[in-house]
UniProtKB/TrEMBL annotation:
InterPro entries: MetalloPept_cat_dom_sf (IPR024079), Peptidase_M64_IgA (IPR019026)
Keywords of this entry: Signal
UniProt key word S-adenosyl-L-methionine: no
Superkingdom: Eukaryota
GO MF term list: metallopeptidase activity
Protein name: IgA peptidase M64-domain-containing protein
Signal peptide range in chain numbering: 1-16
Keyword Nucleus in record: no
Length: 621
């Protein structure tokens, strides 16, 4: 069985179906201290690291926020051996498993665009089952087979029965924002987006720490626009688990027009026009590429876009200065003299102020801040050392949250400085100052802020500890208002997705009757992911260097005439043999592929007993 996972034996026409045996089991455990709060075990989709080691297991652990100040450990373990995973679950959860969802669910494949799933039913002797709401599912655009795609599913919170259409239109708007021309656009053929509707009894999400009666119980802790927590967090996890490999990432979408959200094992966001896409892109960057922050003031910096020191950067193949790749990489010269997260409701004419010191040795500086509840420029004065800074709200933002940068091409003097925020309109009762930061930069020679420049830029964490990132501001992991990843993250995105997605969707064989002479023709064809010339939007990706190369071999010998063809046709009588199809995908967006994620191959055997002539003689054709 383990061999079958790699070598696909061609048994007449049955070969496309046997692909499903390729799928391992995935164990998911949430652990809060010693207690396992959530466990699911079910069939998952391939992981290429497991294909090369089919007797092993692979695992990773993340720590995800469960609230503003709490977190839990999430363990993912993949293996072809279910017993091994059962044993693993027992050893990780010595106190037993509170709520268990060992799904042996008969997951209906998506036939048509809409499917209502049955409530999971548990046998009596099992631990109490997790309940998840009934899900009414629609595709949000073109989809491919879930067994070979990364599936992102929007779940509905705070949408009543009458708001079903609003949910699907909000979810579709978000999916399109993320993938129609930016962010995930180039990798879109590897993704499926779905909406999973559950009616809520009440409309909207809770405030002041009180959830409403909604499917997942999303609420804000206070009146301020900050995190959005889920009261029925397990319901979202169970909802996703209930879809098997039809749900790889759950997104709980709250029916609320203003900023809010939180990342984690699933992402919660709101339908805010300005902030919904912004929060979602950034959180999916964390969970799909598995990278930490790039903005200053966070606590986790790791993954392809972060390095603890300049000699250890992992993106030398992207550096703009080719000499730097061989010699020491220069750190761009910058410092962060001030960082504050006030998250404070502002009172009219009571200035919020903060002091900071500058060394006076930097050529330029930047004031960064984010706020909400202030729709007009005249409502707020921002002063640096008593001088007014020019500020205007993002057009159309209303009372929603937004991020602003005020850049000054002049040095700050040596000594103490003060920034002040003064609200000048007492009717603005929801005005909130969220974050304030001051950065200083060297001159153009010491700090290159050209967006296309790749180097080593210092990032300052919560405690002012420095790590390095690839670009000044070209990545949405830093500049949350930007819709795009930098090249380093985008490469990481391809590699992460292609660990779980095979370039070959399926292989099929057929017999073509003889048109003259006695011989049938045997044909074998590959269904490749719709990339490069197979992109379905009519864009071939040529401008990004996208191409597929296909090499066919028989008994190890290259079949030159079939080079780069997705189908092979051979005379039936000469067909028997061992065939290999090797596929390689190329894109300028990936420069380094150490694990061969952009390659795929299938091996199969054609034998005499299954020849077209033999089948015809048996009356099978
Ligand atoms: C993508 O489309 C949106 C809306 O259709 C548009 O506002 C935006 O400018 C486009 N972005 C790019 C990079 O073309
Ligand atoms: C959910 O809300 C109920 C009622 O307000 C509360 O008793 C319960 O502790 C909350 N659970 C979580 C996980 O927030
Ligand atoms: C961070 O460290 C630098 C260098 O020591 C210092 O100049 C700066 O003021 C510090 N920033 C903060 C916010 O502490
Ligand atoms: C600025 O520097 C002065 C003199 O060293 C020090 O007394 C003061 O605490 C510093 N202020 C801040 C905000 O770090
Ligand atoms: C197959 O296509 C790839 C990508 O376009 C190209 O580099 C390669 O030369 C082609 N091979 C042959 C034999 O034509």
């Amino acid at each position: 069985m383990k061999i079958a996972a790699v070598v696909l034996a061609l048994a007449g026409f049955a070969l496309a179906q046997s692909d499903s045996d390729n799928r391992p089991y995935e164990l998911l455990i949430h652990k809060d201290g010693p207690v396992c709060s959530f466990v699911s075990l079910q069939k998952s989709q391939i992981h290429k690291d497991l294909l090369s080691n089919p007797n092993g297991r692979i695992s990773w652990k993340t720590r995800v926020p469960t609230g503003e100040n709490s977190a839990s450990d999430v363990h993912h373990v993949l293996s072809y051996d279910k017993d091994l995973l059962d044993a693993h679950a027992e050893s990780l959860c010595p106190l037993g498993i509170g709520r268990d969802l060992r799904t042996s669910l008969d997951i209906h494949r998506y036939a048509g665009s809409q499917q209502v799933f049955k409530q999971f039913e548990h046998a009596d002797h099992d631990p109490p089952s997790l309940k998840y709401p009934p899900l009414d599912i629609e595709a949000l655009g073109d989809t491919g087979p879930s067994s070979n795609r990364v599936d992102l599913v929007f779940f509905a919170d705070g949408y009543t029965t009458g708001e079903r259409d609003k949910f699907f239109s909000d979810a579709k708007r978000l999916a399109e924002d993320l993938s129609s021309n930016q962010t995930f656009y180039t990798v879109k053929p590897l993704l499926n987006f779905w909406g999973a509707f559950t009616p809520s009894k009440e409309s909207g999400i809770g405030v002041g720490g009180k959830p409403k009666d909604t499917a997942f119980g999303l609420y804000r802790d206070g009146p301020e626009l900050r995190g959005v927590l889920a009261n029925k967090s397990d319901a979202a996890l169970a909802g996703c688990a209930s879809l098997g490999d039809g749900c790889d990432y759950a997104i709980v979408l709250g029916n609320d027009p203003l900023y809010g959200g939180i990342g984690g094992e699933y992402t919660s966001i709101t339908a805010s026009e300005a902030n919904g896409p912004l929060v979602l892109r950034h959180e999916l960057g964390h969970s799909i590429i598995d990278v930490g922050e790039e903005y200053d003031g966070g606590y986790a910096y790791f993954g392809v876009n972060a390095a603890p020191s300049t000699p250890s950067i992992g993106w030398s193949h992207w550096l703009s200065d080719p000499d730097a790749a061989n010699g020491p990489v220069r750190a761009e010269r910058s410092v962060m003299p001030l960082q504050a997260y006030p998250w404070t409701m502002m009172k009219a004419y009571e200035p919020w102020k903060v002091k900071f010191n500058s060394s006076g040795t930097y050529a330029r500086h930047l004031i960064k801040f984010s706020l909400s509840g202030i729709p007009e420029a005249k409502d707020l004065d921002i002063l640096l050392d008593g001088k007014h800074l020019k500020w205007s709200p993002k057009p159309g933002i209303g009372i929603d949250r937004w991020h602003y940068d005020i850049y000054n091409d002049i040095p700050l003097s040596d000594g103490t400085h003060e920034v002040q925020f003064v609200l000048k309109n007492s009717d603005r009762t929801t005005a909130q100052l969220c974050s304030v930061e001051v950065l200083e930069f060297g001159d153009e020679k010491e700090f290159v802020n050209d967006p296309s420049y790749y180097g080593a830029f210092p990032t300052f964490d919560l405690d002012n500890k420095t790590t390095y990132r690839p670009t000044y501001n070209s990545c949405l992991m830093r500049m949350v208002t930007s819709p795009d990843f930098c090249s380093v993250c985008l490469e990481g995105l391809w590699l992460s997705l292609l660990a779980r997605v095979d370039l070959i969707d399926s292989v099929s064989a057929s017999c073509v009757p003889p048109s003259w002479g006695p011989d049938w023709t045997r044909s074998i064809s590959l269904d490749l992911l719709p990339l490069a010339q197979f992109r379905e939007d009519g864009q071939s990706g040529k401008d990004r260097g996208e191409a597929y190369a296909v090499t066919w071999r028989k008994g190890g010998v290259v079949l030159e005439v079939h080079a780069n063809k997705t189908a092979l046709a051979v005379p039936d009588s000469a067909a028997p043999g061992v065939y290999t199809a090797e596929v390689e995908f190329m894109t300028d967006e990936v420069r380094k592929d150490e694990k061969g994620r952009l390659k795929a191959s299938k091996v199969f055997v054609l034998d005499h007993t299954d020849s077209c002539a033999a089948k015809a003689a048996r009356g099978e054709l």
